[in-house]
Design goal:
Blueprint (H helix, E strand, L loop, with lengths): L1 E4 L10 E4 L9 E10 L2 H8 L15 E9 L11 E4 L2 E2 L5 H4 L10 E2 L11 E5 L3 E3 L6 H6 L1 H14 L7 E4 L5 H13 L2 E6 L2 H10 L3 E4 L5 H8 L5 E6 L6 H6 L1 E9 L12 H6 L3 E4 L5 H12 L7 E6 L3 H9 L6 E5 L5
Parallel strand pairs: 10-11, 10-13, 11-12, 13-14, 14-15, 16-17
Antiparallel strand pairs: 1-2, 3-4, 3-8, 3-17, 4-5, 5-9, 6-7
C-alpha cells in the first residue's frame, strides 16, 4: 500500500508518501480501506517530536479517517466487510477503574492512533473494532473523516467537563481551527451567548456562520479588553482555550467571577504564566479535558451525521501532498479542517 510516513522527527521535509507493508488485522481489529483522512495539530506535534513519544519508525501519522471495512480479524462481531465507518482515535484498556465507569479518556493506559502508535493516513489501516463508528449512507467521506477528533473533544469540553448551559456566555479562542469551530457550533446549539476570536475578516465571518454572536479580531484588539467592554465589565462564564501560553493570562482576565476556563491543548506552549491571585480572588475554575468517552463520541457524531453540526473543510489534498497539508495548519491558512485522500481518489 501507499502511506504517509516519516522515518525521523523533524520539519515538513521528513514527510514521505510511498510504499509500506499492508497491515493485517489482529484479533479484535478490522482492516479499513481508507477513503479520506483529516489532519489535526497533533499530527504536526507528532512529526516534530515530543518528549513523551517513543515511536517505531517509519511512523504513519493520522488520527482521523473514514472508509470501508475490507476485512475483519477474529472476535469482531460489530462490523463486516462493506460497512462504512469513521475512526475515533482514543485507545483505552477497557479494564481499569476509569474505563469500567465509562470514562475511557481517563484510562490509565490511554493513547492515540497516529500519536503513540501507527496512524491512519494510508490506503489501508488496521484499527481496533471498538475505535470505529458506523457512518450512514449520504454522509461524505470528507465529513466522516474530519469530524471525530475535534467534535468529540469540543463536546466533552463544553458539555461534560464545562457543563455549559443555555443561560451562560462562552468565549471560544481560535474559532477558525478544528476544535474552535466545533466548539462554536456546540455552544450555539446549547443556546449560550457565543463570543469567538479569529485573525482575519474572512475567519471572523466563518465564525459567525458557525454560530458566534460576537466575533473579535485578536490581531487588532486585545480580546480580554474587548470582552470586558462587550459584557459591561462582567466577563464570560466560560473560556474555551486550546491555544495555551500565548492566551492564558487574557483567558483568565476574560472570565466573570466564578467563571471557568476549559482547556484541551496548548498549541503555543504548555507552561504559561498564570495569575493565582486572580484565580483565588475571583474563585475561578481551571478544567482540563481530553478527547471523549465512547458514548460521548456516539452522541456528538450522531449530530454530525444528521447535519446538526458540520465540520468545515478548508481544502482536500492527495496524501502525496501531506507536507502541504501540514504547512496549512502551521501557517494557520484557512478555516476548518484539512482533508487528505489516497492518491487516485480525487
Amino acid at each position: 500500500m501507499q502511506a504517509v510516513q516519516f522515518a525521523a522527527h523533524g520539519d515538513r521535509d521528513v514527510i514521505e508518501y510511498g510504499e509500506f507493508p499492508d497491515p493485517e488485522p489482529d484479533r479484535g481489529e478490522v482492516r479499513l480501506d481508507v477513503k479520506a483522512g483529516a489532519l489535526n495539530h497533533l499530527d504536526v506535534f507528532t512529526r516534530e517530536g515530543m518528549p513523551i513519544l517513543d515511536l517505531d519508525f517509519p511512523h504513519i501519522p493520522g488520527s482521523d479517517a473514514a472508509g470501508v471495512v475490507e476485512s475483519v480479524g477474529a472476535d469482531v462481531a460489530r462490523f463486516e466487510p462493506g460497512d462504512r465507518v469513521a475512526v475515533t482515535a482514543g485507545i483505552s484498556c477497557g479494564e481499569c477503574e476509569f474505563c469500567r465507569h465509562g470514562e475511557h479518556s481517563l484510562c490509565v493506559n490511554y493513547h492515540l492512533l497516529g500519536e503513540h502508535v501507527r496512524g491512519v493516513h494510508s490506503e489501508l489501516a488496521a484499527v481496533p473494532a471498538e475505535n470505529l463508528v458506523p457512518v450512514p449512507e449520504g454522509v461524505s467521506w470528507e465529513t466522516a473523516a474530519a469530524a471525530p477528533l475535534v467534535f468529540q473533544t469540543a463536546w466533552r469540553m463544553l458539555l461534560t467537563r464545562g457543563e455549559l448551559s443555555s443561560d451562560e456566555s462562552v468565549l471560544v479562542l481560535g474559532a477558525s481551527g478544528g476544535v474552535g469551530h466545533a466548539a462554536v457550533q456546540i455552544a450555539d446549539h446549547v443556546g449560550a451567548e457565543v463570543y469567538a476570536t479569529a485573525s482575519t475578516d474572512e475567519k471572523l465571518d466563518y465564525a459567525r456562520e458557525c454560530g458566534a454572536d460576537h466575533a473579535i479580531d485578536y490581531e487588532s484588539e486585545e480580546f480580554a479588553t474587548e470582552i470586558r467592554e462587550l459584557t459591561d465589565r462582567r466577563g464570560v462564564d466560560m473560556v474555551v482555550d486550546h491555544v495555551g501560553a500565548a492566551t492564558w493570562r487574557d483567558s483568565l482576565k476574560s472570565l466573570a467571577k466564578g467563571g471557568r476556563v476549559v482547556t484541551c491543548g496548548a498549541t503555543t506552549g504548555g507552561r504559561p504564566e498564570t495569575d493565582l491571585n486572580r484565580i483565588f480572588w475571583n474563585q475561578l475554575s481551571v478544567i482540563g479535558s481530553t478527547m471523549a468517552s465512547l458514548g460521548e463520541v456516539d452522541d456528538v457524531l450522531e449530530k454530525v451525521w444528521d447535519g446538526t453540526f458540520e465540520p468545515r473543510i478548508r481544502e482536500t489534498l492527495p496524501m502525496s501532498e501531506a507536507a502541504r497539508a501540514h504547512e496549512m495548519l502551521e501557517e494557520r491558512e484557512g478555516f476548518g479542517k484539512v482533508v487528505v485522500v489516497p492518491d487516485g481518489e480525487l
